[in-house]
Amino acid sequence: MAGKNFSEKHRILYYEGDQNAHVTLPMLVNMMVLASEDQSELLGVGPKKMSTTGLGWVVTQYQIKIKKMPKINEEVTISTEAINHNAYFCQRDFWISDKEGNELVHATSIFVMMDLQKRKMQKLIPEILEPYESEEVKQIIRLPKIIEPEDGEKLSHQYSVRYLDIDQNRHVNNSRYFEWMINTLDDEVLTNNFPSEVNVRYHVEVQPGAMINSKAIRSGSQGDFRTNHKIFVDDTLCTEANIEWQSYLE
Amino acid sequence: MAGKNFSEKHRILYYEGDQNAHVTLPMLVNMMVLASEDQSELLGVGPKKMSTTGLGWVVTQYQIKIKKMPKINEEVTISTEAINHNAYFCQRDFWISDKEGNELVHATSIFVMMDLQKRKMQKLIPEILEPYESEEVKQIIRLPKIIEPEDGEKLSHQYSVRYLDIDQNRHVNNSRYFEWMINTLDDEVLTNNFPSEVNVRYHVEVQPGAMINSKAIRSGSQGDFRTNHKIFVDDTLCTEANIEWQSYLE
């Protein structure tokens, strides 16, 4: 038995879209997190309740499969469910579907609870966990590891964390990492292709004020390529990802 | 007689807010433009119709007065109206109010029509203008000029235009300029203060791929200060602004 399902409708606004009029990858992630925040609020375990525990939810991995990128002005339904958990890890899934009920996006994510003062992982606490009714299991899903490309075109870009990258939890909004990653690629690549599968692992949080070195390797052929991404602050690997790309024309 | 009024409700989403849980200035501008785009669509002169004319609306100036920054999860009403126009310029106003009807934000803007191929200003064409029912006048409002500070603390920051800064019209989304401007200021300033009045003039469009030099001068005393902003691409002054700041505590 899985957990409680939560759904909400969302109209993609023009400022959530790119020059192709498709929703951007960072905004897609924002929309999914919005649904989980709204579910938490509904179940009485929203930010207010969380703040009394000194803990915060932190995502460690996302695997996002995208069949079709929703378009500006499209009304989509975002659904989410805390599938199961063990003592430390919780699997939460997300689905985005169009008006006809076709699934456009499916994501699986792993969340942990962090002591916000010590910035250390904590055991999940029943007080916060129970309302989601997720199943207790011994072993949660293992999402794929990040694959290192053997060779390819090397790209990189430097960024400084901006004031507006920081969210209410006083950490860099997870969606910003996606912008730092994909912006290393050529405009031509981003104009003609969309990420059909994204596997991202967060290792270390990027702190306000940090300088980011976003490295990418593009491998494969013109019509069939993938990218590997690494986000560094100095010598620390903070985040890494594999992205499979697909042409909009296919 | 002024033009047709259009209103819509909008809930401020967490990803439209900053670490203080207030809506960000760029998102505030996005929300206003959203209302004007939705009105245009409703009146049959949305992007599709516009694209048949080869023209596009371009904002040349905003004067935004903010009494109170809306907060995350707050439901606001955004209203807009094409007030009046002469042969070349159109005055469009915006209001944002809270659930009780209190006005939080009032903005006046000047829009022109641009030939998208030649990137040159054009006379307003009746075909697009008439549905808004804005009044024809000889002289439209003159918004305040940008004031140069006599002295103050000099700040600057460099940016490169990112793929996701470009919107559907293939130009840099207007709201990005606000991020480039305010991000020159210290986090401490941005955490404790909000822009109570913003006067921004757009002179030259920033092009995709450009390198931006955002300069600012902060003048006045600790409790009563203002900033002057200039956005350059090489030696070209693209945008300038005056911002008055007010403490959240007042």
Automatic annotation (TrEMBL), chains A, B:
Keywords: Fatty acid biosynthesis, Fatty acid metabolism, Hydrolase, Lipid biosynthesis, Lipid metabolism, Transit peptide. The keyword RNA-binding does not apply. InterPro entries: Acyl-ACP_TE_C, Acyl-ACP_thioesterase_NHD, FATA/B, HotDog_dom_sf. One of its GO terms (molecular function) is acyl carrier activity. Gene3D superfamilies: Hotdog Thioesterase. Residues 152-246 form the Acyl-ACP thioesterase-like C-terminal domain. Residues 3-132 form the Acyl-ACP thioesterase N-terminal hotdog domain. It comes from the Bacteria. Coiled coil: none annotated. Belongs to the acyl-ACP thioesterase family. This is Oleoyl-[acyl-carrier protein] thioesterase. The lineage of its organism: Bacteria, Bacillati, Bacillota, Bacilli, Lactobacillales. The gene is fat.
